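Loading example: each entry is read as two labelled lines plus one structure line.
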Amino acid sequence: GENVEQHPSTLSVQEGDSAVIKCTYSDSASNYFPWYKQELGKRPQLIIDIRSNVGEKKDQRIAVTLNKTAKHFSLHITETQPEDSAVYFCAAKTSSNTGKLIFGQGTTLQVKP
Amino acid sequence: EPEVTQTPSHQVTQMGQEVILRCVPISNHLYFYWYRQILGQKVEFLVSFYNNEISEKSEIFDDQFSVERPDGSNFTLKIRSTKLEDSAMYFCASRDRSFQETQYFGPGTRLLVL
């Protein structure tokens, strides 16, 4: 069935270091991959997304890479800051035309000052 | 910037009771979704809604669940007879036109079934 696996489940880095979170998806027809940041008790907020016709996208300190052959995509955060601490979810839009998202399990990122 | 809103923010109910969770999607959006997140777990798709009808539903969305868009602004999720395992955060999301894929999430309703 449709599935997205996300690793690691927790990640602790020092301020200024880089953080990488990886996801794999099962539906080869998936064509849209958003990343959401969720702070404690708040709504998931879209931070970056990528479509299957590109291999990489960057927005300031955040970048996402996509390998369609291997069916995996990654989030890269450089020069991490304490305010980057949150739970990050990857997701994949399935091949169904409803646009539903299948989410990964989430990664709790802690950036230590 | 327009946002998806949800009410109530928290709901406590007794097992077997009916609950209605309300959402106001972003005004010009056409596609609506409900997701749930059990504490500490991933966000799970429940149902999608377009053109006044359900377009897809998950296995979780059984006969105890229903959705409705009673007027031009509200989008509701009803659970007819709540179970303990329905305790979760419920998120509403909405999306613009078919080629705009970004889904915007509401703040969620935390449902606790006792």
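The interface with chain A takes residues 4, 31, 33, 35, 41-45, 48, 50, 55-56, 91, 95, 98, 101-108 of chain B (CB under 8 Å).
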